């Protein structure tokens, strides 16, 4: 057919089509094949140890802990490693990354570089054993979440606030409710609220307790959880306001922490990664936004404050101190440093620190019946460490195996290294970890 005839034909087809052309949605990827994971030591994500479990995975879910390898099931031998549920970080910023010049990316970056940056942060998190992250928040986290969930794009399961809610004591109740409903309409999984200004600019209160109640009540009314960035007495204000999770809590008193515990709020002080990462990379940040030398020095100087608050929190009976790193550019993929901070700087037990990123974090996200435990019926989000983190905590840095939803994304096991392991080859779904 000549080009003019082709064009005419196409035009005819177009005109003859009675309604708007509508393509079928791209189908999701096929379910992963069945897998049996042989283990010698596994942690179940809720404080228990499993010996010699054989974890059967079908259609992306755990179906049994006593599997007999079925015909056609792939067998992966994780004996000699420590197996546990994929970790969950309830507070990251995947959108934050360094640009081509090595500086914190700004809005002047090209859209493609921006997309690559967020995808790389997601991949690095997954490779570090974090199979679920809650990213709070940037609008670009929405398309990333959807691509991973619906189209097999590699990365952790993502929940996102898409943005955050800021204001001051003069912001009207109607405006506050409107902001919550707008996020809901945009597809947010939770609401992120700033109840205090940044630590770099004074950590001063923004909203009143009454305003926080308006926001957190409205979030609950539309079916969303609320996460509040709070310092000092804003911690107890957010707790009294019925908000779900309280972040940072720097400069809070023991009474503020106890108020949060009494209210049943999840608490997440950070001691192991975020400030250290800012200091290590400060020349990449300073000069952009509110990143200044003085602000960086304040964070470093006040790190013992975070440690004090964290220590009070983990030692307060019935507290729910959930895993949360606030990872930003430079920190994605190093989230496990927070485990080491929790144990070394707050005096938490290694098991409690690990559980805070498994069943406790899953519960905090409202996903306790889907992820965070090695139990039949849950999603097969499973990782393995080279070493036993209860004996040698640094093993959290040595993630050799990552499965999310039954798909193997990382398997760096060496057949000879552990003596007689069967030597499963890397999955076709895996791509090599970035050096
Ligand atoms: Zn944050």
Number of domains: 2
CATH topology of the largest domain: TIM Barrel
What does the radius of gyration come to?
23 Å
Secondary-structure content class: alpha/beta
Helix content: 25-40%
Question: Could you say which overall geometry the principal axes of the C-alpha atoms support?
Answer: globular
- Hetero groups bound? zinc ion
Which residue ranges are poorly predicted, with pLDDT under 50 across at least 5 consecutive positions? Answer: 1-18, 419-435
Oligomeric status of the shown chains? single chain
CATH architecture of the largest domain: Alpha-Beta Barrel
Full CATH superfamily name of the largest domain: Metal-dependent hydrolases
Amino-to-carboxy terminus distance? 51 Å
The counted number of beta strands is 18
Name the CATH class of the largest domain. Answer: Alpha Beta
Strand arrangement, largest sheet?
3-2-7-16-17-18
Strand content: 15-25%
Mean pLDDT: 91
Number of helices: 14
Largest beta-sheet characterization: 6 strands, mixed
């Amino acid at each position: 057919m000549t080009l003019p005839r082709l064009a005419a034909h196409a035009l005819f087809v177009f005109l003859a089509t009675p309604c708007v052309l509508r393509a079928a949605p791209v189908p999701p990827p096929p379910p992963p094949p069945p897998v049996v994971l042989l283990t010698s030591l596994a942690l179940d994500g809720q404080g228990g140890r499993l010996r010699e479990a054989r974890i059967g995975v079908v259609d992306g879910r755990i179906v049994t802990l006593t599997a007999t390898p079925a015909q056609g099931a792939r067998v992966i031998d994780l004996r000699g490693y420590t197996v546990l549920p994929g970790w969950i970080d309830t507070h990251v910023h995947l959108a934050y990354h360094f640009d081509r010049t090595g500086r914190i990316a700004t809005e002047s970056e090209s859209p493609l570089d921006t997309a690559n940056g967020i995808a790389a942060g997601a991949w690095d998190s997954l490779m570090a054993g974090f199979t679920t992250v809650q990213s709070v928040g940037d609008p670009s986290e929405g398309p990333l979440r959807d691509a991973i969930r619906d189209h097999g794009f590699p990365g952790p399961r993502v929940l996102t606030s898409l943005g955050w809610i800021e204001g001051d004591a003069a912001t009207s109740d109607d405006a506050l409710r409107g902001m919550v409903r707008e996020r809901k309409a945009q597809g947010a999984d939770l609401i992120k609220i700033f109840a205090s200004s940044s630590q770099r600019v004074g950590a001063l209160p923004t909203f009143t307790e009454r305003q926080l109640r308006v926001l957190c009540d409205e979030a609950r009314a539309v079916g969303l959880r609320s996460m509040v960035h709070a310092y000092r007495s804003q911690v107890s204000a957010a707790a009294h306001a019925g908000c779900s999770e309280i972040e940072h809590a720097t400069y809070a008193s023991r009474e503020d922490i106890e108020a949060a515990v009494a209210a049943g709020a999840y608490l997440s002080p950070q001691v192991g990664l975020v400030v250290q990462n800012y200091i290590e990379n400060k020349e990449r940040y300073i000069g952009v936004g509110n990143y200044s030398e003085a602000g960086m020095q304040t964070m470093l100087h006040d790190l013992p404050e975070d440690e004090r608050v964290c220590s009070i929190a983990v030692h307060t009976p019935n507290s729910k101190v959930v895993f949360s790193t606030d990872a930003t550019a430079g920190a994605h993929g190093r989230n496990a440093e927070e485990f080491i901070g929790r144990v070394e700087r707050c005096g938490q037990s290694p098991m409690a620190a690990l559980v805070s990123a498994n069943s406790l974090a899953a519960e905090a996200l409202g996903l306790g019946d889907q992820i965070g435990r090695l139990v039949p019926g849950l999603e097969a989000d499973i990782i393995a460490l080279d070493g036993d983190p209860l004996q040698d905590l640094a093993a959290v840095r040595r993630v050799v195996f990552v499965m999310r939803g039954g798909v193997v994304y990382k398997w760096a096991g060496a057949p000879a290294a552990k003596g007689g392991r069967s030597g499963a080859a890397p999955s076709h779904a895996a791509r090599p970890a970035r050096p």
